[in-house]
Amino acid sequence: MNVIHLKYPHQLNESEATTSYSLAIGFFDGVHKGHQAVIQSAIKKAKELNVKSAVMTFDPHPSIVLGGRKEKVFYITPLQQKINVLKELDVDTVFVVQFTSDFAKLTPEEFINFFIRELNVVHVTAGFDFSFGAFGKGNMETMKELSNGDYGVTVVEKLTDDEEKISSTRIRQNLQKGDMEEVHNLLGRPYEVPGIVIHGDKRGRTIGFPTANIQSHEGSYIPATGVYAVRILVQDEWYDGVCNVGYKPTFKNPEDKQLSIEVHILEFEKNIYGEEVVVGWYKRIRSEQKFDGIESLKAQIEKDKQEAISYFQK
Fold first, then answer.
1. Which CATH architecture group holds 190-313?
2. What is the distance between the alpha carbons of residues 227 and 121, in angstroms, rounded to a whole number?
3. What is its EC number (predicted)?
4. What is the pTM of this model?
């Protein structure tokens, strides 16, 4: 898959400038089932027209540049992760457009000239609610009206489950609650967080449950505190595990607000400090709690471990 970073005004090399594309366009945070419907439609159209399939996304999130959001923006799929998911969907090319103040000022006509016509896009596919151009003045009706027959347009209607739209907002809300089964359902795959194994306080091994202490990659969102059934990718192999996300209230001063992600990997003996890993989140087993001693903590961890084992056996 080819990844092309564009900034307004952009320069394309000769091969990029002469390739024709069927383009799916949107921010696509999460690349959830609704986004996948848009992207698959563009891929299907590419095959019909015998052109390359492409996805156009934007970085950073428009609200970071434009302001107007009180809460901190977090990504369901930070850029590199989004690119990895798009590769798995068999997209030929990804255009990553840098969202800048100058880009945000483009009129809908200018956006189409620079980012549709100049890229040799022969067909545009987007969701029913996609908007573009300064103040979001352009919509998919505008996209059709301004085409002058230069490109075709497909609008994909909202994808729902139980009458509710599948959306990035819903996924964020469920991540904040820790409902990983619902997140899995909306994404069409488990939620994943990449990271690196770092040294922790090594307390787990002293009580018979050694853990890998994970430092997540910047920009990743960590689900609600609690204990989860997870899978962890280590050296290209997936292992089942139990993950504790939280502040270790049994051992730590409640004023210490350092969040930790610790995975007890089942049937695993290796030393993996410094390894790049990916944590896949499947089910929240319980909330984080404070125990009155080591023995009650050990008994609960054993129960959590058995629950994770039976979950994955199902």
1. Beta Barrel (2.40)
2. 47
3. 2.7.1.26, 2.7.7.2
4. 0.88
